[in-house]
Inverse folding.
């Protein structure tokens, strides 16, 4: 349970809110690079409750700026994207990607004051197939996060995005809530159905693991563990990384290079980006017969895109059609009757309401990671608010490199963090691998 005041502090992201200000210290994924074409249509963009316009100019540079023209506040959505700038259609003022006014054609040359006018623009970079915006207060933006999944070349990376019609934190809490996996996703699976050779069977055999959790420099981490073969534990590690990243445990630790990003569009809408290394071992997906596990195959069709603030990356299966739940399938084949792991997650986090009322919860020992992460976020937001102190990850982007999610089996008589350290040293680093390959 959380107080209403803390719930408010955690979930509100607009300008001036504690969490909104914390997020504005970091680079924020704004959209996919592929959504903007040079001299193409300007796009409405909702980010942390701010209404913005994104466009790509003739030279391929991306601009993201306040949607209201600084002259008399007409929306730049209707602007003409022409010759390295966006021209407002009301009186023709034109702005470059940095927000500089470069033309003021409705004013006589002698009275032109374009050099005094600036549209409020974000700093912008492109990486990992995404456009990132810095909306914070610094003249020099901080470094980008050194998260390996976000540093892979295009051919080594799969990137997906979808919109969630709920607050960013309840979406993120789904990523670090490991005990739901044995129910929401594989609740009707029997241990006998699974390949006895795969270590992931332990997660099916025992669905009530114990937990270790701790704060880290980059956020929080947990290990869910249960006995595997005698004298060993099956561990599933996952991380929360400030301010909105997660590494989930659903895969093999050795090569699981993956990242999920829950970016608030506003308080009640989230864009969830999933980034995966193409060469990671797929997580548990098949029965021992080789057949797919019922109900898990992804089925994430999108609704047609619109120009509305909320018109991008909406899924066809949604709250108002009950995610196409099939009660017959639920009765006889799968736990939920909802098809697809992503759709199941979507239903779970959206059905709580747009912003879940956390005063109503009854948290269990299985929720320790969620409790700790809330505390960590509140502490970071309040330190910024009261002491003007930013978390270490703002300036020390390499701290993220110590985090890795995934599962392994380790001797039960070694400490969980020692087991983590050992496995981290032996894990595959795709970037290291690519560097070595290039040197050959
Ligand atoms: S409102 Fe944009 S040029 Fe006048
Ligand atoms: Fe899930």
């Amino acid at each position: 349970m959380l107080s209403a005041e803390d719930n408010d502090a955690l979930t509100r992201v607009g300008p001036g809110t504690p969490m909104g200000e914390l997020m504005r210290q970091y680079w924020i994924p704004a959209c996919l690079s592929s959504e903007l074409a040079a001299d193409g249509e300007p796009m409405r963009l909702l980010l942390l409750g701010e209404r913005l316009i994104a466009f790509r100019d003739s030279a391929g540079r991306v601009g993201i700026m306040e949607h209201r023209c600084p002259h008399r506040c007409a929306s730049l959505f209707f602007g003409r994207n022409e010759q390295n700038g966006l021209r407002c259609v009301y009186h023709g003022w034109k702005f470059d990607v940095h927000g500089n006014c470069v033309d003021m054609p409705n004013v006589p040359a002698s009275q032109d004051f374009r050099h005094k006018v600036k549209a409020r623009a974000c700093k912008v970079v492109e990486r990992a197939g995404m456009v990132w915006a810095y909306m914070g207060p610094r003249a020099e933006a901080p470094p980008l996060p050194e998260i390996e999944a976000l540093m892979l070349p295009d051919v080594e990376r799969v990137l997906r995005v979808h919109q969630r019609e709920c607050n960013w934190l309840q979406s993120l809490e789904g990523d670090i809530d490991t005990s739901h996996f044995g129910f929401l996703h594989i609740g009707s699976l029997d241990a006998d159905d699974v390949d006895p050779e795969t270590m992931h069977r332990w997660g099916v055999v025992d669905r009530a693991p114990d937990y270790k959790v701790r704060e880290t420099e980059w956020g929080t981490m947990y290990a869910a563990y249960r006995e595997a073969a005698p004298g060993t534990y099956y561990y599933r590690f996952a991380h929360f990384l400030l301010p909105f990243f997660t590494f989930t445990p659903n895969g093999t630790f050795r090569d699981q290079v993956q990242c999920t990003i829950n970016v608030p569009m506003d308080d009640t809408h989230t864009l969830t980006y999933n980034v995966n290394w193409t060469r990671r071992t797929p997580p548990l997906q098949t029965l021992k017969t080789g057949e797919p596990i019922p109900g898990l195959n992804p089925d994430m069709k999108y609704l047609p895109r619109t120009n509305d603030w909320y018109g991008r990356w909406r899924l066809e299966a949604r709250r108002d059609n009950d995610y196409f739940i099939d009660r017959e399938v639920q009765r006889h084949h799968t736990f939920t009757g909802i098809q697809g792991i992503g759709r199941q997650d979507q239903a779970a986090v959206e059905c709580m309401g747009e912003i879940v009322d956390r005063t109503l919860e009854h948290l269990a020992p299985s929720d320790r990671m969620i409790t700790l992460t809330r505390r960590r976020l509140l502490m970071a937001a309040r330190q910024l608010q009261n002491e003007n102190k930013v978390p270490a990850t703002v300036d020390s982007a390499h701290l993220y490199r110590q985090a890795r999610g995934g599962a392994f089996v380790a001797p039960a008589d070694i400490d969980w963090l020692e087991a983590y350290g050992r496995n981290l040293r032996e894990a595959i680093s795709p970037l290291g691998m690519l560097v070595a390959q290039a040197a050959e």
The radius of gyration is 23 Å.
